[in-house]
Amino acid sequence: MTEMTVAANDATNAAYGMALEDIDVSNPVLFRDNTWHPYFKRLREEDPVHYCKSSMFGPYWSVTKYRDIMAVETNPKVFSSEAKSGGITIMDDNAAASLPMFIAMDPPKHDVQRKTVSPIVAPENLATMESVIRQRTADLLDGLPINEEFDWVHRVSIDLTTKMLATLFDFPWDDRAKLTRWSDVTTALPGGGIIDSEEQRMAELMECATYFTELWNQRVNAEPKNDLISMMAHSESTRHMAPEEYLGNIVLLIVGGNDTTRNSMTGGVLALNEFPDEYRKLSANPALISSMVSEIIRWQTPLSHMRRTALEDIEFGGKHIRQGDKVVMWYVSGNRDPEAIDNPDTFIIDRAKPRQHLSFGFGIHRCVGNRLAELQLNILWEEILKRWPDPLQIRVLQEPTRVLSPFVKGYESLPVRINA
Ligand code: HEM
């Protein structure tokens, strides 16, 4: 038995050996150690709407089946996203949530703001950016080391998402690392190595506000161009936004597209190494890239969950959820629910309905940037395949190091080697 199989067996024994009521799937260690599977499997089978009475984030409900997650998502009158109710992740008290972001608002305000911003990332607008994204991606891949070990996360995923964000905003190139910093600062747990306190978080986000206000002022008085800031500054629906709304939307666009896309870039390489026959299928038929990209996003599930707060008492899944209770929709579990997805633990690049997954959420908050994320990943894989068409030319050399978080599901590092 390999080391990995032993770890998986240990996790299964632990998950099935404990009392059901003691299961706490918010424990970040489960995600860092990649041992979350059997805990969610057991909950789906034995207690799909499960109450955890104590965790490092306090008590919460877990919704683990695909259909139940859709039911929560489509009932925003009862299941609120509002920042004042507690927000959209299992972690409460993030000071960044005080910025007006429509991801943490309920209707009607959410709907108005979403309608205002969404045309900015509509496919027609993105198509105009495609050639720049492709050029930057190609340049980055051409500069990678060949026949030697390097870290895919830093050399490709972080570098490329940072460059892509800078491209989307036409952000001053030499300052682009600031974008990654502001994204990390927004989502970090204080004391976890990135920020020490909520005060520090807000101070850094104020620098972000000042910087972006300056860019707005330059662009509102210049000819319209194809970057997200110019589009907002010149669009009738967005040009009169209040300053804090502008900042809220900027931060949402930075954070929304950063970790998620980054971790999908790494997850794809890992999945294809685990399922090399799928890479063979892909090399034989590159037209499968777009369905593979959807499968990567399902298989990775870059955000493990979104959270809601019950605004009233409700019977749900045979349980009595009370007003004020925290309700966590575990996309990571819904995406592995065999009642919704055939053979869900297998990575299959030519599924019949590849876009049927929960990684982008569902209902009124479904990810605004989903087409943009898919476009970026499509370009990346088209360019990779042109250069390294042979299966396993990009070899994963060791297990990745995974992020310690019940929210961002991703990687710290993935050692690889590209064989010429
Ligand atoms: C693979 C990449 C991505 C994943 C997995 C992802 C995932 C998500 C999820 C789970 C939600 C919440 C859905 C819900 O509550 O039902 C969301 C919302 C959102 N995402 Fe993404 N996202 C990705 C890429 C992007 C990109 C590239 C952008 C923009 C640049 C973006 C912008 C947003 C915005 C603005 C919202 C708020 C929508 C609303 O509340 O109405 N996302 N995303």
TrEMBL record:
<dbReference type="GO" id="GO:0005506">
    <property type="term" value="F:iron ion binding"/>
</dbReference>
<keyword id="KW-0753">Steroid metabolism</keyword>
<comment type="similarity">
    <text>Belongs to the cytochrome P450 family.</text>
</comment>
<comment type="pathway">
    <text>Steroid metabolism; cholesterol degradation.</text>
</comment>
<keyword id="KW-0408">Iron</keyword>
<dbReference type="GO" id="GO:0004497">
    <property type="term" value="F:monooxygenase activity"/>
</dbReference>
<dbReference type="InterPro" id="IPR002397">
    <property type="entry name" value="Cyt_P450_B"/>
</dbReference>
<dbReference type="GO" id="GO:0016042">
    <property type="term" value="P:lipid catabolic process"/>
</dbReference>
<dbReference type="GO" id="GO:0020037">
    <property type="term" value="F:heme binding"/>
</dbReference>
<keyword id="KW-1207">Sterol metabolism</keyword>
<keyword id="KW-0442">Lipid degradation</keyword>
<dbReference type="InterPro" id="IPR036396">
    <property type="entry name" value="Cyt_P450_sf"/>
</dbReference>
<dbReference type="InterPro" id="IPR017972">
    <property type="entry name" value="Cyt_P450_CS"/>
</dbReference>
<dbReference type="GO" id="GO:0016705">
    <property type="term" value="F:oxidoreductase activity, acting on paired donors, with incorporation or reduction of molecular oxygen"/>
</dbReference>
<dbReference type="GO" id="GO:0008203">
    <property type="term" value="P:cholesterol metabolic process"/>
</dbReference>
<keyword id="KW-0560">Oxidoreductase</keyword>
<keyword id="KW-0503">Monooxygenase</keyword>
<keyword id="KW-0349">Heme</keyword>
<protein>
    <recommendedName>
        <fullName>Steroid C26-monooxygenase</fullName>
    </recommendedName>
</protein>
<dbReference type="InterPro" id="IPR001128">
    <property type="entry name" value="Cyt_P450"/>
</dbReference>
<keyword id="KW-0479">Metal-binding</keyword>
<dbReference type="Pfam" id="PF00067">
    <property type="entry name" value="p450"/>
</dbReference>
<keyword id="KW-0443">Lipid metabolism</keyword>
<keyword id="KW-0153">Cholesterol metabolism</keyword>
